[in-house]
Specification:
Layout lengths: L1 H13 L5 H27 L14 H14 L2 H8 L10 H22 L7 H5 L7 H29 L9 H23 L12 H27 L6 H32 L5 H7 L9 H19 L6 H19 L1 H4 L18 H29 L5 H4 L19
Length: about 425
């Protein structure tokens, strides 16, 4: 117990250690997060009237971000699968960063769900009326919290073992890894089923919503990790090989191709039959009766995804500057397509035929930025703490004045080659 409390104290201490760039980054994130908290306090006092949501469009930017971030969390499986299933040695050194990303992103997902509740003090009604197993919302709550606990256990155990200078026992983390792989797919599938199961919203009534969710997630997630690993490699002593980045590049490349193919299938299904149910898709892509607020956004997203896919297909993307541009285009393009481009059009027109457009207010925008800042703050701290521990620079033995273990790298499964 003494060793564990020493571990927690050293992690807390490490989170405050860094150069001026680290402190500037953390200060900026803290200020944005506090601004978002202030905006949420205003919403808590005055209600959802401070947002752009109405009776006609009851889900907006909060649920759009939630949907996108669930996929980002599920994308951690794209690192775990090749490492533990296919024994890909290139990704052994970076798999922990995917797990840490999952922890941070799930916290953000839970926050977006919380701010979307008009009365968060009544959240316990969901638990009291536990309509299991028929309610998709109940399944979503179980999936999100279960995935958070799994990743907390895996990350915490592996980093703690590295801190103690011992090799982790496989029976304490390998079974959880394989459960997390299946769970990662389930959290996004359940989220997709939450939309697909709403029969009154024809825009969501498609069997390929879940595959589209997974394909876009497995493109945006590894793309985000590629950018993260380059920051880690540049500003820390942690060694990240180009082979690891290019392995992730191949994953994003395939996922983007599948995502575009599924989008084309969806467009064909919507527009070829030309039924009355095409109204929402028509509003999104072409505009409907002079209402076209989302048209420029969705076509910008499609253009970004096409350009990103083209860049990933070209040999030029093996150069890091081009690879970074392609990753940014993929991340932003999928956020627009999978967020606002998926959630809002399902409410326009309403089942009664009303055309009420949605635009986020300043309060909503500040709250969203605040949650993103908080998530990045948590992820930065987790990475800042993990890198020196996994590298053997901070250990329990070294903490008390003894030299660090002779082979500190072997103590971490991130360096384990067996």
């Amino acid at each position: 117990m003494k060793r564990y409390f020493a571990f927690l104290w050293d992690c807390f201490r490490l989170s405050f250690v860094g150069d001026w760039r680290y402190h500037l980054w953390m200060t900026a994130l803290t200020l944005v997060a506090l601004t978002g908290l202030y905006a949420y306090c205003q919403q808590l006092v005055h209600g959802l009237v401070t947002t752009g949501m109405t009776d006609q469009v009851s889900w907006g930017m909060y649920i759009a971000n939630f949907t996108y971030l669930v996929g980002l969390a599920a994308a951690a499986a794209m690192l775990v699968i090749p490492v533990y299933v296919y024994r890909n040695l290139h990704l052994h050194d970076v798999v922990i960063f995917g797990e840490l990303l999952a922890v941070s992103v799930i916290l953000m997902c839970l926050l977006f769900v919380t701010v979307d509740l008009g009365r968060p003090d009544r959240f316990h009604h969901l638990l009291l009326r536990f309509n299991f197993p028929m309610s998709m919302l109940t399944w979503d709550v179980i999936a999100l919290n279960g995935y958070l606990l799994l990743n907390l256990h895996i990350c915490g155990y592996l980093i703690y073992c590295a801190y103690c200078g011992r090799r982790p026992a496989k029976k304490f983390y390998i079974p959880f890894v394989f459960v997390a792989i299946a769970w990662a797919i389930s959290i996004h599938t359940v989220t997709a089923f939450l939309y697909v199961g709403l029969g009154g919203r024809p825009f969501w009534n498609s069997a390929i919503i879940a595959p589209r969710f997974l394909a876009s997630a497995f493109a945006a997630g590894p793309a985000f990790i590629i950018l993260t690993l380059q920051v880690v490699r540049r500003f820390t002593r942690h060694q990240v090989s180009d082979d690891a980045l290019f392995t992730l590049r191949r994953i994003v490349q395939v996922a983007l191709l599948i995502n575009l193919f599924l989008l084309l299938c969806e467009l064909f299904t919507e527009f070829y039959a030309d039924t009355r149910h095409v109204a929402s898709a028509q509003y999104l892509f072409l505009g409907l009766h002079g209402r076209n607020a989302l048209v420029p956004w969705i076509w910008t997203a499609i253009a970004m995804n096409v350009v990103a896919t083209t860049l990933f297909m070209l040999p030029a993307s093996r150069a890091l500057p081009t690879l970074n541009v392609a990753c940014v285009l993929a991340i932003v393009g999928i956020w627009i397509e999978k967020g606002m481009g998926l959630i809002v059009p399902a409410f326009i027109p309403t089942p009664l035929g009303e055309l009420v457009e949605y635009a986020p207010t300043l309060h909503e925008t500040l709250i969203c930025f605040g949650i993103w800042a908080f998530g990045l703050l948590v992820y930065t701290i987790l990475v800042r703490v993990s890198v020196p521990v996994l590298a053997g620079q901070v250990t329990y033995a070294h903490r008390w004045g003894s030299p660090p273990p002779a082979s500190s790298a072997a103590a971490s499964p991130a360096f384990e080659k067996g």
